[in-house]
Each structure stands twice: as C-alpha cells, then as structure tokens.
Amino acid sequence: MKDFKKIIEEKHDSIRSLFEEGGKFEKWYPLFEAQDTFALTPPDTTKGMTHVRDGVDLKRVMFTVVVALIPCLLWGMFNAGYQYYDASGIEANLFTMMIRGSWIVMPIILTSYIFGGIWEVAFAVIRKHEINEGFLVTGLLFPLTLPPSIALWQVAVGISFGVVVGKEVFGGTGFNILNPALTARAYLFFAHAKDMTGEVWTLAKDGATGATPLGLGASFGGEGLDVKAALADRGFTFGRMFSGLEPGSIGETAVIPILIGAAILIVTGVGSWRIMAGACAGLGATAILMNLMPIEGQEAGEIVQFTTWTQIPFLYHFVMGSFLFGTVFMATDPVSAASTNIGKWIYGALIGVVTVLVRVTNPGFPEGVMLAILFMNVMAPMIDYYVVQAHIKNRNAKLRKFSYAKG
Description:
About 65% of the residues lie in helices and about 0% in strands. The longest helix has about 40 residues, at about 370-405. It is mainly α. Helix 5 (about 95-125) packs parallel to helix 7 (about 150-165). A hairpin with a 7-residue loop joins strand 1 (about 200) and strand 2.
C-alpha cells in the first residue's frame, strides 16, 4: 500500500504541467509554486557544474523569524485580554484572558496576511516570478507593532502601503531599502497618529483607555522634572514596564518574550548580534549623556518638557516603547541593514543614538526607534561603502609597506 504522502506527491506532480510554461493555467504558476515549495519538496535540482549545498534557504530563514516571533505573539494575546478585563474590572483566569486576547489580536493578523498576500500574489503573477516567503515575516511582524484597538481597515491600508511602496516598487524581497513592516507602521503613524500614539484603547466594555509610558512622558511638561517619580505615580515602575503588563502595541511591551526571540535569532545565525549589541550600546551611552545635562534654571514649559526627558534613567529607555522589539526583529533585517561586520556595529549604535535623540528632543514623536531604524535603513549602504573603502585603503597601505620592505 502506497504511503499517503507519496500519493499526494504523485497527484500534485500530475497537474504540474498545467501550471508550467505553455500550460492551461500558466498565469497562476506563482500560486502553484508557493504551495509546492511550502508543503512539499520540489523535484527541481541545480543544473550547473558547481554549486553550494546548504540546508538553509530563504524559506527556512523566514520560518525561523516567524518562530522567534511566537513568544511575542502569545504574550500580545495574553496582554490584550488582561488589559480588557483589567479596565472592565472583571476577574478572569489565564485561559479566559488568552481567549479574549486571541479574539482581539487574530483578526488583525488575518487582515494583514490576507491583504498583504493579495498584493504579493498580484505582483508575482504580473511579474511572472515566485511568491516570496518573506511575506510570512512581514505579515506577522506588522500587526505586532500595532495597538490592539487599531481598526481593521487601517491594518489593510497599512500593510498594502508597506508591501507595495516599501518593497514591490523596488523589485520585491531582496531589493527593498526599507523594512516593509516598519514602512507600513510609519505610514499609519503619520497618517493616523491619533490612533497610534498616546491613549491606547483597552477595548473594555466601557471604552476605557490607557496611556503608554512614552505617551505619558511626552505630556509631563509642567509637572516637575522627576520623570521617574511621575511615571511611578501612574503605575509605570521599571518592574512593570519590564514585565509588559501595560497598554501598548501588541507584541512590543514585554522584555522576556523579545529576549527569547533574540536568542533564537542569534543561535540560528539569522539575526545579527552585532546590530543588537551596537543598538543597546548606542542607546545606553546616549541616555547616560542626556542624564548629565544641566537642568538648573530652566523654567519655560517647553524647556521643562525637554529636560524632563533628559533625566529619565537610562535603563528605562530599554524597556519603554518598542526599542527592544525594533532592534531585535526590524533593525536586523538582512536586506535593509548594513552587511559588513564593522558596519553592523556602526549601524546598530546609530540606531540607539538616534532613538534617544528623537525621544528627548521631539515629544511629539516619543517613540524614536521607528524613525531611527528607517533613517539608518537609508544610511546602511553608505556605511558599508565607507567601511569597505577604509578596508581597501588599509590593505593597500599594508601592501605598499610590505613591498617597500622587500625592495
């Protein structure tokens, strides 16, 4: 008796010719190829004389990133349910919170995959190339950067902008200069700022809202200069922000799930530890320098608001907002990040520096990591260029010195 898998493969191969060149459904080959490579092992082999055999391909790399995002997804579901029942004043157990959170979060994720997938298929059919597995990551990464109260039509518009403008207009996966998920979030951030910042709906029955720590900090102004105490008065201690039990974007609030994802990416070699370490070093060093700024004699409301942010303890910057999430899952995007080892350190460090500078100097945009990563995405090719040129210059100098010594 034939193995069930073998029967499926034979039936699948029997219709392959219908989708290949000259077949009746040739136009829809990208759809056939997508499920063929995802669910089965294609019969194609390399025809060249010399090639490298490697078990790690694009599909496995993208799947690894999806696995690394699962802890953040599960936490996001729990936290959405927790915030719902906490704002409603209803006691609930873990299972009930997860069910409620899933009911809130899953429609956002499904909307992202459906509408983003439509654009992916459309461009693949028009350009007559395979559907790239990169969307498996973009379709999940983007929803995790959104508040649970986001309208589904905004999710659809945002992911459409990210896929089309952030990736496909450049030629698709591997050619984009900006992270597509972050491009989608940036569009919603600027086009629908009211729904993306400040008070985040907890989706409670009474319509209660809860401010994020960054949203509160941007509004302190005349409340004094002790931002740590001001945050603590509103319940935002370092421990609570570390735990992630607070209103905010679905997958960005808790530190431990993000660190688990970082460990998966680093161990598998998918994410660059140099970029992560560089970003943390840049953020910590800049935040410490801000703490050293003199604040005496500053009276005006605008100045007080500015100096308030300079005095936030540097450790708070790591657990407030989406710095860790963005650093681990977006800054390390191999397509839009720096490629050289030294360039990765510079690229990561500048992300940390710009994040603090945006948070401190521009209370209107308290979450600086999004702007920092997008800015450094654009700068990454230039960083790599100068790193390579410096290496060539150094090598040529050594060669001239060696030739002179021998001569």
